[in-house]
Amino acid sequence: MSALPPITRIVTGHDAAGRAVIASQGPLPTVVELAAIPGTVFHEVWATTQTPAYVGNDPDPTLGPLTLPPPRNGTRIRFVDIPPDTDDFLATGAGKMGAAFAEIGDMGASTIEDSSPHPLMHRTQSVDYGIVISGELTLVLDQGEARLTPGTVVIQRGTNHAWANRSGAVCRMLFVLVDGAYDPEIAANLKGPK
């Protein structure tokens, strides 16, 4: 697991009299290190399953299998610890992507091809807000790259991308994923899974 500090989550709710209360407080119940990409750790914080979001005392939505995209018509919030790229991963990582995306419940998200600029190239039909909390990453797209440092926010709009860690230290990002639907004109021109 990552050497970064654990995440503490406080969930509020209502008692029988309608008063605001702390429903739970403590470490996240679902923290998963990917076997296919050691050092990559998903810290599941919360999810909603509809819009508008149901406001109630419903059970913890993070229990159960790890899933990359948000629920249909819903949202997902998570932290991801991303380890430095290694020469071995860059050379052999493409062959591990089926297993990696199977671990996170979305084998169809991988868009890796022989010409891909990074083994982690993938796409989800969602709008994702990615915020660098600590460390450094490079956002890799089909055309172009951007260096990300703490405080940088990426608005990921269903594009083919990868997170390359060229820094030599683990990077922690906070992601809020919102279910989406492609503009038909964009969808018609997408390569790979949609």
Structurally, the number of domains stands at 1
- C-alpha-based Rg, rounded: 17 Å
Sheet-strand content, in percent, reads 35-45%
How far from one another are the termini? 32 Å
List the secondary-structure elements in sequence, H or E. EEEEEHHEEEEEEH
User: Could you name the CATH topology?
Assistant: Jelly Rolls
Quick structural summary:
Helices cover 10% and strands 36% of the residues.
Your description of this structure?
It is a single chain. This protein is mainly beta and 194 residues long. The chain has a single domain (8-14, 30-189), classed as Jelly Rolls, CATH 2.60.120.10. Helices cover 10% and strands 36% of the residues. It contains 3 helices and 11 strands. A 6-stranded antiparallel beta sheet has the order 3-4-5-11-6-9, with no helix packed on it. It has a 3-stranded antiparallel beta sheet with strand order 8-7-10, with no helix packed on it. A two-stranded antiparallel sheet has the order 1-2. The longest helix has 7 residues, at 97-103. The model has no long low-confidence stretch (mean pLDDT 94).
Can you give keywords for this protein?
194 residues, Jelly Rolls, three-stranded antiparallel beta sheet, single chain, 11 strands, 3 helices
Write the layout of secondary structure elements.
Elements: E1 8-14, E2 20-27, E3 31-33, E4 41-48, E5 75-82, H1 87-92, H2 97-103, E6 126-134, E7 137-141, E8 145-148, E9 153-157, E10 161-164, E11 171-179, H3 184-189
Antiparallel strand pairs: 1-2, 3-4, 4-5, 5-11, 6-9, 6-11, 7-8, 7-10
